[in-house]
């Protein structure tokens, strides 16, 4: 009982000391006087104190979480900030993780999922678009209430990013903390944004694994050479611009992205043929190895680099965990959509003149990257394996009868007709 009274007395002294010293910690005489009196009291009562614990630093808890696309919490952690000693009369302010964020683009595919995560994290999100499309759309399977909550918080800045004078004036007036550049293709489009926001905390760029120089040694790592003649050279030049400027930047390089609302004919190309019960024409052996990453995993990676010191001035490959052959991808799409085992027809592209049409949606080569850097530094890991991700895409998009491009089997017919001639 004596121990408890002694410990309680000590805690009471600590509480008094905390209040008085905090109020007078600016070095005033009253602060020194109070501190001396407290030390004297503690010394005189040492005999009464049995359990004495050292005074702990003051902490404030800041919740930080990553939310998924239906509102469930993915990661829950507590960050601790040491509370600084402030002069008498100063307002005690707790640092907030909420940011004023601008997304360049954001009305389709990647931005649709990224903006939801950022809003659920408590950030103020503004989309910069030309205003030709609605700034928000309800996701497949999203409740009316969830969509209403999201869309009511989303802000819009209408303009053309190629109008550099408007970009500079409008962005400098707003003073954003962070920019997510989802649709930037050329360095010239990025420089005005950096000029307009001299106090920018972070510029997060969506680059592409297409910047890598073709090589016999795979997978591609972030330090591999870039191809200055690539059709993605503008993204490579943008990364070089970011390096040259005094700005905190992060660049993500996805490989092939898939998932609901995909405007590129990736999985949709296969689903059209599977639904029609047609053979799937694949160039050459079909053993070419490639890599796909789900859009939701990419969106989560974009959130995890935000304010992350380990992501400062870094490039990260972002894609799926495993690689897949072209033939394996056709079979995975069939499994995801509940279709029978597909008939696969191989052909030599050099034997055909397809004109400007693209007969196959992937580059005819081995093309895949290592994602180990993102896993090690960011703690990021893909949630979706390939079949699970393709199933998610099919169920929430193509399987509902929605798609971006209508089926075009004209190049398929050229290939199949030649196959029939050779067989006869």
Quick structural gist:
InterPro entries: Epimerase_deHydtase, NAD(P)-bd_dom_sf. The protein is an alpha/beta fold and 424 residues long. It has helices at 2-23, 29-44, 110-120, 144-153, 164-174, 187-196, 233-244, 267-275, 295-304, 326-337, 372-378, 386-396, 410-423; strands spanning 59-67, 73-82, 100-104, 124-129, 155-158, 178-181, 202-206, 249-254, 256-258, 280-283, 289-290, 292-294, 314-318, 324-325, 344-347.
Question: Explain this structure to me?
Answer:
The protein is an alpha/beta fold and about 425 residues long. Helices cover about 35% and strands about 15% of the residues. The chain is built from 13 helices and 15 strands. The protein has helices at about 1-25, 30-45, 110-120, 145-155, 165-175, 185-195, 235-245, 265-275, 295-305, 325-335, 370-380, 385-395, 410-424, and strands at about 60-65, 75-80, 100-105, 125-130, 155-160, 180, 200-205, 250-255, 255-260, 280-285, 290, 290-295, 315-320, 325, 345. The chain has a 7-stranded parallel β-sheet, with helices on both faces. A two-stranded antiparallel sheet has the order 1-2. A two-stranded parallel sheet has the order 9-12. α5 runs parallel beside α6, α6 runs parallel beside α7 and α8 (about 265-275) packs across α10. The termini are far apart. The model is unreliable at about 1-65 and about 70-95 (pLDDT under 50).
């Amino acid at each position: 009982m004596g121990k408890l009274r002694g410990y309680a007395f000590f805690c009471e002294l600590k509480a008094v000391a905390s209040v008085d010293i905090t109020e007078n910690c600016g070095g005033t005489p009253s602060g020194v006087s109070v501190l001396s009196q407290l030390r004297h009291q503690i010394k005189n009562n040492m005999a009464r104190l049995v359990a004495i614990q050292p005074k702990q630093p003051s902490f404030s808890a800041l919740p930080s979480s990553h939310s998924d696309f239906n509102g469930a919490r993915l990661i829950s952690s507590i960050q601790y900030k040491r509370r600084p000693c402030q002069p008498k009369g100063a307002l005690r302010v707790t640092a907030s993780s909420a940011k004023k964020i601008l997304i360049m683009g954001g009305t389709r595919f990647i931005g649709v999922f990224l903006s939801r995560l950022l809003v659920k994290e408590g950030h103020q999100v503004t989309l910069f678009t030309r205003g030709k499309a609605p700034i928000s759309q309800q996701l497949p399977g999203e409740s009316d209430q969830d969509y209403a909550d999201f869309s009511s918080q989303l802000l819009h800045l209408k303009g053309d990013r190629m109008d550099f004078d408007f970009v500079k004036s409008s962005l400098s007036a707003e003073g954003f903390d962070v920019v997510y550049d989802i649709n930037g293709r050329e360095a010239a489009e990025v420089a005005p944004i950096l000029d307009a926001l001299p106090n920018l905390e972070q510029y997060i760029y969506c680059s592409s694994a297409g910047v890598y120089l073709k090589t016999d040694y795979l997978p591609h790592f972030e330090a591999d050479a870039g191809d200055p003649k690539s059709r993605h050279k503008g993204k490579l030049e943008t990364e070089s611009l970011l390096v040259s400027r005094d700005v905190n930047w992060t660049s993500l390089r996805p490989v092939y992205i898939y998932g609901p609302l995909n405007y590129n004919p990736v999985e949709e190309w296969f689903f059209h043929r599977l639904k029609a019960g047609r053979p799937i024409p694949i160039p050459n052996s079909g053993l070419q190895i490639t890599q796909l990453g789900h859009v939701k995993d990419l969106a989560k990676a974009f959130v995890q680099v935000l304010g992350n010191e380990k992501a400062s001035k870094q490039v990260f490959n972002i894609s799926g965990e495993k690689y897949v052959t072209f033939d394996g991808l056709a079979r995975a799409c069939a499994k995801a959509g509940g279709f029978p085992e597909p008939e696969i027809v191989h052909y030599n592209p050099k034997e055909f003149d397809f004109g400007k049409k693209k007969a196959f949606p992937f580059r005819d080569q081995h093309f895949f990257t290592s994602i180990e850097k993102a896993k090690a530094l960011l703690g990021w890991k893909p949630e979706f394996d390939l079949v699970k991700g393709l199933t998610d895409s099919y169920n929430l998009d193509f399987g509902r009868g929605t798609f971006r491009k209508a089926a075009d089997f004209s190049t398929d017919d050229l290939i199949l007709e030649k196959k029939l001639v050779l067989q006869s």
